Amino acid sequence: MSSGARRATLVAWALAALVLGAILLRAPVVHAQEKKDPPPRDARFVWNAQKTQLYVDLAFRDVIDAEIRKKLSRGLPTTIVLTGTVHLPGVKDPVSTTAQTCKITWHVWDEVYLVETTRPGGTRSTAAITVDGVVRRCAEARRLLVATSDQLTVGTSVYLSAKVQVNPVSPELLNKIKRWVSRPTGTGTAAPGDALFSTFTGLFLQRIGEAERELKFVTKTLVPVVEKPPPPKEKK
Amino acid sequence: MNRPAPRLVELSMRRLAAASLLLATSFRHETAFAQAAAPTPLEAPPPRQPPAGAPRVDAPDTWGTTEPPERGVPAPPDAAARREPPPSSQPSELELDTAAAEPRVRYTLEAIEVRGNRRTRSRVVMRYVPFKPGDVIDVDDTEVELTRYRLLGTGFFRDVQFSLRKGGSRGRVVLVIDVVERNTIIVNDLWMGLSADADKRGNARPLTAYAGVDVAETNLAGTGITLGGAVGLAQDQLALRVRFLDPAFLGGRWMASGMLLFNDAKDFFGNADVLWDDPSQLNQVPDYAVVAYKRFGGTLGIGRDLSVPTQLWLNYRLEAIDASLPRAASHIRGLDREPILFDILPGRSVLSTARAYLQHDTRDHPFLPTRGWLASVSGEVGLTPLGSDYAYQRLDVAASRWWELPWKRHVVRLELFGGAISGDAPFFEQYYVGDYSDFLPGRVLGMNVDRRPPPNFLDNSIVEVRYGHYAAKVGGEYRIPLYRGTRSVYGIDFFGSAGLYGVAHRRDLTDPPRGYSRLQLIPVDLTANLGFRMDTSAGGFAFAFSNVLGFIPVRNEANR
To answer: pTM of the entire structure?
Structure first.
């Protein structure tokens, strides 16, 4: 075979690779146990009386299953994070975003749940004596600020796209973990550069994922109501 | 509206008292909101200050009611619904408003208890735990969670959970480590393919199948020691290897490794029109001068982590070699007939070397990385004072970098390699073109299973090279994630790679083959590959098309 024919063969293979690559470039990543979108959840959107801030009330108690309930009492922190984006119907880009985090720590000796909640407005620490109290604090969002009148016109219908994560791994921590896993100090399961080591560490890296449990949902599309202004105080 | 009926009080007075004590002693009473950290303060009623030393157990939730709504149904946002009911009406929903920021919970560690380990010894688990009785443990310390991942990273366990329970006296706790063990027998590598020859027109000619497998038990008898065995088979060739790794040698911070290797192998020399003088091999492999050799020996090494991503290994190797060569052999190299250089001593010889290996690894994933570096430097010297018949020095530098692209998490990799050998290294220690070209099978446990020269896409003197003293490669890879899972198959990626590499024997520089023009004297070639990489619970596998692609015609001496 001449060198020209050999090059032609190479070009043919390269073209085949390009075609295959072009097809795969458009392929979406399939995730195992991919579920259909759940039905929209109930929520309540409320403008404050001054019509300057929009709040939402919603619940996601199902994120705390039996396993997470058990973890709540292990004495080490459990974190539940809600992140949400507010959308106009039919518009992909959000008009605003919000978040709420909740860190729960069971105090072994005092037998109370210490709950530290962070959301727009600041951080607050409370204590709950029962798991139900924890669930109510951390698996619900009450009067959570989601938008302002600068971002949204009063009277416009909206919906919230939410993601709830239990014990999400921060990128910094994840990187630290993964770096460590790649080369754990003082430990190892195979020689450096060995595919054997890769196999072991790969076994669990996928399990770290982004969180121990994740829940995604959207709320129903609703027109926010407006709070009634408080009644004027009577003069004594 | 309907409200859930109040439930029975199940709280003991002791817990209430304890909670009150905790709040009175541990937390400062401040405003409920840290306004300084508030980007957009909520409109909330001002927090009420409780009396000093008397924390409220019925503090209203300034973000809304603490009354539980029905499951899955949000609470009404009206003011009445947000009002906290008095504790007497809903005692099971009592909450204690501490209103303090960042409470720290610390205990004194009384003991560490390992549970669920049926095969793995507790001391092996404890090797990865940085805490000891008497330490003060902060529940927010990230080291706690990192320790959990360290244990998962050993590959010994399917699950690891940490918890605390009361110790013998107030403030003391027992750290409980619950583990679920997993199968630790891993298929480390698998080789299968067709070795090939090339006819005089340069067309690949499949010969026989070759195969190999490398299996390891990574938690031998629960000690954390890895013991692996591998076997490679090809036509008239056999390779065996046994390895072990102790990640905590003598319970210390050093790692120890060992390896035994046996090769009963053949290699095939000669570019074209090969002539040889060896009556024992006549008519067996007519196109090649065959070297039959046996290697038996081993390596001992110690290693240590210099930092989280950096590891250093020092190895000593000792091998006995018994080689059978043709008495004389020649071939056409370029335009001239020249003697074949086998680069191995006939009869019995000894190989004794020392090797240092430094690796820096910041990859975020070992088999399907998306970012980070994998860089290494290694140097090896033949130790003639310790009996080596081969005096040589070898230096290799390799680096790979991965980037995740902003769209669809596609990944790009850049790979660089450079290596040089000075002195008289045996041919199986030299750079082999099949280790750089994806169109030729690489060596299996040190055994060469293929007889072809590289494809020579650039029509130059690389076709004259099989083993060399110098090698370099620059390559790139593009990876497209197709599947992500959490059970048996963790991920499948499609990949396409391409590169340029060069391998040169010392003689190619000092006495280049005639018949090539100036640029053709640079022995470089292209390589490429396509396929799928799979990360599974049984190991990482790559299904590549290169071995099929490798059967396109090779060797072009018939046209010269």
So the answer is: 0.65
